[in-house]
Write the structure tokens for this entry.
Amino acid sequence: MISLSGVVAQFTELVLAVLLAPLLTGWVNQCRAWLQNKSAPPLLQPYRMLAKLFQKEVVLAHNASPLFRAAPYLIFGCLCTAAAIVPTLGTDLPLNAAADAIALVGLLALARLFTALAGMDVGTAFGSLGARREMLVGFLAEPALLMVLFTASLISNSTSLATIAETLAHKEFVIHPSLAFAGIAFTMVSLAENARIPVDNPATHLELTMIHEAMVLEYSGRHLAMIEWAVSLKLFVYSCIGLVLFLPFGIAGGGDWLGLVLALPALLAKLAAGGALLALIEMLSAKMRIFRAPEFLGTAFLLAVLAVLVHVLLER
Amino acid sequence: MLATPLHDVLAAVCAWLAIGALGLLRVGSIGWATRILYPAGAIVGLGLAAIALRAIFEPAASMVLPLGLPDLPLHARLDALSAFFLLLLGAVSAGVSVYAGGYFRQTQGTPPGLICLYFHVFLASMALVMVADDAYFFMLAWETMALSSFFLVTCDHDQAEIRRAGYLYLLIAHLGAITILLCFGALLAGAGDYTFEHMRSLQPSAAWATAAFLLALLGFGAKAGIVPLHVWLPEAHPAAPSPVSALLSAVMLKTAIYGLIRVTLDLIGSPLWWWGVIALTLGLVSALGGIVFAAVQTDMKRLLAYSSIENVGLIFAGFGLTLIFHGFGMGALAALALTATLYHCLNHAFYKSLLFLCTGSVLHATRERSLGRLGGLIHRMPWVAWCALIGTIAIAGLPPSNGFASEWLLLQAFLFTPGLPHGYLNMLVPVAAAAVALTAALSGYVMVKFFGVVFLGQHREARLVEAHEAGIWERAGLAWLAAACLFLGLVPATVIGLLEPITRTLTGYGIGNLAQGWLFIAPISAERASYSPLLVFVVTALLVVAAWLLVRAFYHGRVRRAAPWGCGFPNQDARMQDSAEGFGQPVRQVFEPFFRLEQHAPAPDDARPRYSESAEDHLWYWLYLPVARGVERLTALVTLLQRGRISVYLAYSFATLLALLLFVR
């Protein structure tokens, strides 16, 4: 049942995701700097930062619990598994039978739970503030993401991400109005979940506006490196979910070795375009107040529900 | 006569009753009850679970007990559905009883021997509810359950607040009991035969069946804590001692689910699809309302009680979906929805009892129930904290826990609904799925609040430094329940196999054979969806360990301890952490119409500024208080009759006699 090409594809994909994720972050930062007319940091800057953080010693708060020390690895592990089940190169992935779109949302939520708990662990004012805000974003973004994935699941009659990618890539060209709604909702959710403008600012160090950064304030050294890497992985995973749902072309089917090789440049090109688009969106919007975030995410949730309704009403 | 599983079950019930009675031997002795009797009760619970596990796969057996009124013997019956709920009761109560052996150390009101009696009578009556096979026996067991649990809730009856909670509980329990009685009346169809066998054989007309269903929904809904009959739950659960709260929430609420399934799918037999819409709507309203209220609670047991309302809501939603599918003759999908419902019952029983027991240990160690005065307990009570973390992940519905497995099945059932032959329903169901998703996400929020505020951060009060770890008995109970949560989450295929005989008898279909082996579950077909928590867990664990080993292998492991960084602010203290109120604030703001908010903000020049805020339930003011006032007004009319003079009462008797002589000849 499990083919050799499947195992190879699965392994390559996982390693590729882990290795490429900081590159995507570097690319987005570079695009952002260009658009802001600044001189851009090198493309490999995130790797250098990770290397530097790994070298540094860990400064732990006196009352940090074992959970605080385990959390970076747990978060990283959850996001690695999430990255492994999203098809990027090929659809013949053995892990896809073990976890579907709902499990993917669950894994992302598990990572968020650990991040928030780690933020509360030391017991500083900012840590728990960040955790509260992150969970606020989470409880509105998670159902919206689930409904976006449901739209695609209903179209392709399956919650397996591989089947979704195959159905959406290989069927004859039909315009799905539901996917348009889902696309907008997904973009909004990804911005919020990846701590991007307009909901959060990854470059901020102004305490009162922070969400994600506030939670990881206490981390340093290798722990911070794992968290930063996990953040890059999360951006990578969300980008790949977006590609599977809205641009699934170029992903190889089962046993297609040539397709697997060709899928890599296709993936890189799509990610580059996606990253540039993300930088553009961030450039064009202003950071909103935290109390406006529920409205923003509520809109995304409603759009996602509308996407499912439109599918049920118009496309059956 | 050969001993059937039914005999064994009845023997276990008798054992429980005997243990309870033995408690009376030495009413005042704590050691007698906790060291001997509760552990013995736990062994009986384990035995009951083992018997029930075997009985699930055996054909239904029934017998007539040599008990009861003349001409009205008690009937008992053990089928797959009863056996499943007995398994739940036995397995959960084993953990709770062991824990109770360590928990009841000092008492304020009721002596320990009496608590032991009520406790075991409560367990026995719940088991009898599940094997009762006639309306009379069922009501007898049901009322015993209500009364014994009332006495358990009011253990510390020297506090007025607890007496009030007990009164409210008893009131709503009896409202429920009356409607259940009326429901059986509707099912009897005028014949004098109270057996369930008789009710099963009848085919009631649509009107009578609907009346019976609505009465059952109301009666069992009151016991389960469905909105709008949920108000007793957040009062009674915090009032009771923690092992009792665990039993109330984990098992007693499930007896209501059992009753509803028994009446609707077994006794009535042919449900109409629109009943499902009512159950689904009520369930979703309860789920969303429950979790939103849980988010703003500041008492940890109240928070868990509201979360029980949420879970019962999800169970009702799953049950409603079962009825919709069943009503349209889509048996396989009805089986899927019913499997998800029953699976969620089992999961909720384990993780909710686990969390209630954790709050019990915290309460023992700190004498504090308010979230605002706890914090940092992971350092003082690591065992309890890690068990609570497992419960937290499970109740938040995250993989690879058991909570996720049942929510996964429920969402799968929702995804299949666009096949329903009814236009409006097809539109409503995605909205319902969205509500389920929102509820699941919100429960994550609530549980981060619960775990983070109680166990993480700094001690909010200085005396928490003296908090001690739970004793060995308590830890054993917690470990048993936590292990069960993990086990149920990792092998869903086995659990679905257990549920198969039930769905086969009630809907005619089972989804057990579509679960592929023991590793994967795949309802309907593997192409549509499959899930293997064990694989997800192993892969994630491997990745976590690999990441840790690699980092360790390539880099140094130096750690320096320092004071937390206060963002340049020098005087941070424990009071500056987010409080429970603060953590609930976003939910209070987003879901403002749900609450009746009262805020008291201090004036700018206040010398001793105090800020207080309360978020209450609208239903108290819109439903309960008007009803209570109406009842008071009616009873005031009765006092007009009461003159307190014997001549007036004699005149009443005379008038009544005259009237009877005139009209009844």
